[in-house]
Amino acid sequence: MTISNLIRKELFQMRWILIIGMLFGLALAIVIVVTYHYMEQVVAEIPPDLMEFLAQYEITRELLFIFGDYTDYVWSQWNAKNLIQAGSILVIVMSASQFAGEVSRRTIGFYLSRPVTRTEGFLGKIAAGVIVLGVVIGGATILTLATSAIFGLNAEWGRLFGATLVGLVWLITYYLAGCIISILNREPLSAGVIIGVAGIVISVPGIFTVSRDLSIFYQMRAVDYYIYQQTLTPTILYGLAVSGVLLFAGIKLFAARDF
Amino acid sequence: MSKSCLTVRNLGKNFGSKNALTGITLDVKEGEIIGLVGPNGAGKTTLIKLIMGLLKPDAGSVSLYGKDIKAVGHDVMRRVGYIPDEPFFYDFMTARQTIEFNRRFYPNWDSQKCDDLLKRFHLPLNEPVKNMSRGMKAQLGLILVLAQKADFLVLDEPLEGLDPLRRLEFLNLVLEDFLESAGRSVLISSHYLEELERVVDRVAFLNEGRLLRVMDIEQLKMEEKTIRVVFQKEPPETLLNMSGIKSVQQEGKTSYLLTIEDNFNAIYEACSRYPHFILEIYHRNLEDVFMDFSGRDNDDHK
After folding, report:
1. Residue A107 at interface with chain B, using a CB cutoff of 8 Å
2. Which residue has the higher pLDDT, A143 or A42?
3. What is the 8-class DSSP label of residue B128?
4. Is A8 exposed, middle or buried (0-12, 13-18, 19+ CB in 10 A)?
């Protein structure tokens, strides 16, 4: 009862994020379908001798790979790119306002003086954030695939949902890290900047092959699953383990803070 | 003997190197109204936030209905109604949504009382809270704690920013609610000492993070007085050193202003027995005593 009331309040508070996120997902779905449709025609019209010449270059080979298969194209545009970018912005906006926003608006006293334990107060916010992330990311994926079907483009739903699930798990990891930073800050703007900077810092290991597994943004792309055909389990368990540690740390930190 | 709804023992709180509260020990019994007074920065809000579990103590303990604040569950928190120093509600909610959000936490929510108070205050239910005046927000806060059927009201400066009529109405409603049930208690901090004096059973004086005194309001009315006396000759030292005389101010050679905090009858009797020209009693109110505590403390620091 308590938790559901808290979640309901958080969802109501984040309703505009949810609506804008879904509109973005719809716009993205249309863009992905239209650009593929257009680029497919462009590639088809390239003369064979020019194609042979261009194929010498790595970038062309990559583009041909992407446009060679619609599922690969959707993965490259959504899972490997926009999910990470849009999802990260969503995480920064949500997590910065979740705790630091409540303190700066001076509503935290009202929130915590209800019959709510600190753990419930924390989990209520986290659960609502996870729901919003799930609805926006999952919804955008569904919209993309549904729009594709309407335009007669068939993608492998299962693989793309698998990759999206991995991306979502790692976005939740970033979200939890953001919430911890938000608890430590009293202003949502400064919290947002720090969460963004922290995101850049933790993306650095992704640049190097040897350390890329340590980057949550590399993990979000679900490269191991999608490209290297590994099972979903290891990367999801890895993400859940890191999230579990952050969740535990967040509960302890929130319980110990003065408000 | 009535039980305590609030037990505070040797409570201490530091903010960095600053001691915000030191060694606070206080009980609020079931069925009493206790006022918390002190100048700005005395530590009233800090103490109330510690009582509500919003701040963590650095020393000592706080118990609500016998349970340590660190371990209180929903059952205890449902019995406590809190109005913070500034009633901040969620700006994105209307008054109706705020009430609805709150109602779901309290199984004993009194819808009838809520409706009655809403009618009485004429609050714009569908107006976002951000458009409401401070007075309206205070009324909304009062509706929430009264409809919650709290046994213990913790009110931090609830009269601040209200006009005299609204202050009166606010306190009357708190009193009405208090009288509805025998075991209800109220802890209220305020700078409006005249209004406070009218409703409280006891008053706790706080200054610079220390609890200076907890005084029964009846005792204040009976004992806290000032005697202006002009003796015919120099009085004996034993008279001026009688127990209960808080301060002696000599105005002339044989003219004295005695501030009494206890043992009034005996002191008055002793003064009247000694030859005098003038013997006058000035009744002291809460504000006078408050000024004493604030002033005395300031003098100590000079």
Report:
1. yes
2. A143
3. B
4. middle
- For domain B4-219, say whether CATH 3.40.640.10 is its number: no
Domain locations in chain B as residue ranges? 4-219, 225-283
Read off the pTM. 0.84
Angle among Cα B211, B214, B217 to the nearest 5 degrees reads 145
Identical fold for domains B4-219 and B225-283, yes or no, is no
Say if A154 is an interface residue toward chain B (CB within 8 Å).
no
For chain B, say whether A259 makes contact (Cβ under 8 Å).
yes
Q: Residues 6 or more apart from B100 whose CB is under 8 A from it?
A: none
A-interface mutation test, from B105, B142, B156, B187, most A Cβ less than 10 A away: B105
Q: What is the pLDDT confidence band of residue B1, given thresholds at 50, 70 and 90?
A: low
Q: Determine, for residues B88 and A107 on separate chains, whether the beta-carbon distance falls below 8 Å.
A: yes
How many Å apart are CA B76 and CA A137, to the nearest integer? 40
Q: ipTM > 0.90?
A: no
Residue A116 contacts B where some CB pair is shorter than 8 Å: yes
Q: Residue B196: which pLDDT band, with cuts at 50, 70 and 90?
A: confident
Confidence of residue B165 (pLDDT cuts 50, 70, 90): confident
Residues of A in contact with B78 (CB under 8 A): 115
